[in-house]
Structures are given as C-alpha cells and as structure tokens.
Amino acid sequence: MDYELTRKDRRVIYDGKILTLYEDLMQLPGGREERWDFVHHKHGGGACTVPVLEDGRILLVKQYRPMVDRETLELPAGAREDPSEDGSITAARELREETGRSAGVMTFLARIDSMPAWCDETTDIYLAEELSEPEEQLLDDAEEIRTLAFTLEELLLRIFRGEIRDGKTVAGILAYAALRRGIHHQLCHHRRGEET
Amino acid sequence: MDYELTRKDRRVIYDGKILTLYEDLMQLPGGREERWDFVHHKHGGGACTVPVLEDGRILLVKQYRPMVDRETLELPAGAREDPSEDGSITAARELREETGRSAGVMTFLARIDSMPAWCDETTDIYLAEELSEPEEQLLDDAEEIRTLAFTLEELLLRIFRGEIRDGKTVAGILAYAALRRGIHHQLCHHRRGEET
Predict the structure, then answer these.
(1) Which of A133, A192, B40, B84 is paired with B24 by a 20 to 30 Å CA distance?
(2) ipTM for the complex shown
C-alpha cells in the first residue's frame, strides 16, 4: 500500500463525565482522508471477577441497564478509581461492594478491549475463589443490584442461547469453562494412557 | 427502594458518523438525579465469524487499530449494512471480504453487548465451517488486513496471556473451545462408562 492508516488531525467534540468524544481526521491506506469518531473512556478501564462458590456455582449480579433497556446478568465489575489502579484491586473492591464477599485467591483470566475499532476501554477479568461468607452490599445510590448463583452448565446454556450477552461476562464465564475443561481434558488423556 | 433507575430527560450532544452521543438525566434508585453519557451505535450492531479450516486451525485478521494504537488479532467482523440485516448475512459478507472465503455451514454461537452500561452496540458471533478455498480479499480503502491461521490451543494460550484482547474475539474463540471440549467431555464420560 502507498499509505498507512494515520491520524492527521484530532478535535474534541465533547468532554463528558465518563468519556471524551473525538472526531479524528484519518488518512486511509488508500490515501483518501476520512473523519472517524473515537471514544476515549476516562476511567482508564475496568475490572471484573468470575466469583466461584465452594459448591462450584458462579455469582452474577442482576441489574437494569437503561442503555439497552433490559435487566442484565453480569459478572461483578466496575471502573478503576484512577488509571494507575491495578485491575485486581478494582476487581476485589467491586466484588465486595456488589456481592458482599471477599476472595481468598484471585487469578488473572484475560483482558478484553470492549470495541477497539472506536473505543479504548479495557476490562481485566479475574477468577475469584475461596470466597468469604456474604456481608452487606456496599452500593451507591445509582445501584440496585441482586446477586444470583448459577452452575457453570446453566451459564453455558444461557450464553449459547444468546440470553447472557454482556461481553466481559460471556468472555469471563467461557474463560473459566476453558480452564475447568482443560483440567478435565488432561485427566481424560491420562485415563486413556492407563487403558493402553 | 423508593425510586427506580429512570430516564427523565435526554439531549443529543453529537450526531456523528457511526454513533450518537446522548447526555441523559437519570433518576437514581436513591432518588437523586444525575447526568449520564450514553452512546448509541448507528449501524445496528455487527457480526463476526469463528472461521475453522479443515485442519482445525482458526482464521484471524490482523490490522492496525488507531484507537488502541496497536495491531490486533480479531475474528473477521463488520457492521450490518442496515439494522434489519440478519447477523448471519453480515457475518458471511465480512468473512468473504476480509479472508476471501465462504462458509458452507454457519452456526450461531453467541450475541454480545460490548458495553451495556453506556453503549447499545451488539455483535453476533457465528461458527463458520466447510470453508471454500480463498479468493481475493474485497477490502475498502480504509482496510489493510492480513489473514493468519492459528490452532485453538495457541489462541487459548494467547488469550490467557492477555495478548488476544478484542472482546468479540475472546468470546468467540472461547465459545468454540467450549463446544469442542463439550463434545470431548461427553466422549470422556462415555469412555468411563465402558470402563465400569
């Protein structure tokens, strides 16, 4: 190609509460110039947990999301208090606030970019195990959240039915399933080995 | 609670090329009113495929994403041509344009909301199998895309290392892994049955 995709100019359209909207003048690989909308998310990304109870069930939070006008089932999640905050700190705080529980062990599962084509928001996903007994939720007055527990099999069914849709939640549950089945997968190979 | 989370007023801040930005006046469950930023994504959502070759490798597309200033590995994906377009049509078109291949079989895997807290963008994810031999890519002059093939195991490693981060791509690869391992899981149970 003669050109690379390059930003030639940027103007701030709106500097909002949680995001800054830019209109960028981009030079396309073909050479033509085009204006693109870009969203910078101010909180420096968020974090969430896949909280697994002793009986293997997974805790999700149910809440009304006005933008999609639906109640959603999501992993407990929230924004960093400042961009330098480690995702595991954010994730642990949101777990405590939304479910009343603390985790004895946190394990990094994945980091996702929500929509890298036009936004820079990221979410770190952690596995949360050895959970404490629940204490009272610590919700702000914007939050009305119920905590529900589901088996992994039930959650996989709901994902493949398109019922659980939140991106970080689908990614986190499936990442946990891949780890779990990965272990099982190895056990199976070991068992086959014994058969020969 | 005395109140529910309710939108009391909405004003359009910016009506852009791919998105509309709103500032909504929300009444919080606690009763207080607060202004929230909301992004409506105009293309009515997108769709992507997990394209699986005969040898089991998965095709991803590599491209530079200015918003995150990185080259990303993503599932072939794109926007609906109009909001009424079925996601499987969108997914098939983008697979053809970005990889040069067509799928003999498409299977719905999941639908994800990128970030339901503040945006209404959705992406439908399909498994694409029985792929044709590659023909020429059909890229517009904004696109500079390379196609690369990886084994599922390699992709899982890259996800758990935080290297593959695009939300729809992490969700789609892990959804395919859950299906694959699910079948394997049943085979293992069957094998155990034979042992008894």
Answers:
(1) B84
(2) 0.89
Beta bridge partners of B47: B78, B124
Residue in chain A closest to B20 (alpha carbons) equals A37
- Residue A153 has a CB neighbour count (10 Å cut-off) of 11
Task: Give a three-class secondary structure readout of A78-95.
Answer: EECCCCCCCHHHHHHHHH
The model's pTM: 0.90
Mutation choice for B interface testing from A18, A19, A114 by most B CBs within 10 A: A114
Q: Which of A31, A165, A185 sits opposite B112 (nearest CB)?
A: A165
Task: Yes or no: say if B140 and A136 are a contact pair by the CB < 8 Å rule.
Answer: no
Chain B residues with CB-CB distance to A43 below 8 A: none
Would you report the helix, strand and coil content of chain B in percent, each value rounded to 5?
Answer: 25, 40, 35
What are the chain B neighbours of A143 within 8 Å (beta carbons)? Answer: 29
In chain B, pLDDT over 90 holds for what percent of residues?
75
| Residues in contact with B162: Cβ distance below 8 Å, sequence separation at least 6, in sequence order | A108, A110, A111
**Residue pairs spanning A and B at CB distance below 8 A:** 232
Structure tokens at B166: 């695009």
pLDDT digits over B108-130, tens only? 999 999 999 999 999 999 999 99
Which residues of chain A neighbour B171 with C-beta distances below 8 Å?
Answer: 167, 170-171, 174
- Burial class for B95, CB neighbours closer than 10 Å (0-12, 13-18, 19+): buried
> Is B174 within 8 Å of A177 (Cβ atoms)?
yes
What CA–CA distance (Å, rounded) separates B92 from B49? Answer: 8
Distance from C-alpha of B74 to C-alpha of B63, rounded to nearest angstrom: 8
Paired with B22 in beta bridges are B12, B38
Fold type of domain A45-191: Nucleoside Triphosphate Pyrophosphohydrolase (3.90.79)
Strand partners, A22: A12, A38
Break chain A into its structural domains and give their ranges: 6-41, 45-191
The CB density around residue A12, as the number of other CB atoms within 10 Å, is: 10
Q: How many helices (H) and strands (E) does chain A have?
A: 3, 10
